[in-house]
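User: I would dearly like some help making sense of a protein record. I have put the entry right below:
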Amino acid sequence: MRFASLTAVKRLLPALVGLLTIAACSNESADKTAPASETAGTNPVAAAPVPIGKGFDFYVLSLSWSPTWCGNNDPAGKSDQCEAGSRRGLIVHGLWPQHENGYPEYCPTRQSDRVPESLGRKYLDLIPSMGLIGHQWRKHGTCSGLSQADYFAVARAARERLTIPPELASTEGSRDLPVPTIEAALIAKNPGMTPETIAVTCEAKLLEEIRICFDKTLKFRACPEVDLQACRRGAVSLPPAP
């Protein structure tokens, strides 16, 4: 009987070793997987790689409050951007390569000065004017070290990595917002953003632009010189969209 028991144990031993190995591997995998509380809220878009530019230090994504621009430049609504019923609020004015001090513009490039309509039309949902698309490429895109296609792809990626809070999403009715409230609302919706990342600019008492600073991989970063250009008013007015 003792011999039979020993033989049975020997037969079971490989199976026991296999079970212990599986358990150990499961524990190791569990250790390498972040808890749900650590991964919750992670934006998969934020992890997507983007073409890396050269010849500058960081980007400024400039978002223009369209009703302010239209009221001052196209009150009759003749342009696509300002036509009645467009309901546009914040639009992408441009993606600007910056130096730590100052910024480059109208850089020499082998790329064409003209943005083909076939390319530009892909971005009219962000920058609602072929004229503005062409201007942004000539003045700023040529200094990015990127091709036209890559420059505008990075501009879209930068915009998509930014969540616009409800306070800035509505274009209904005129309203006043304190500048600190605008900054706090953006920070609350965009992890990693700080007040030093944002510059709210104004034209008289009207909201003109919101400028957000990114590094070349589109992570939020501080930009003291850009921040110095921010509006010094305590609050700004947001006129409604036509």
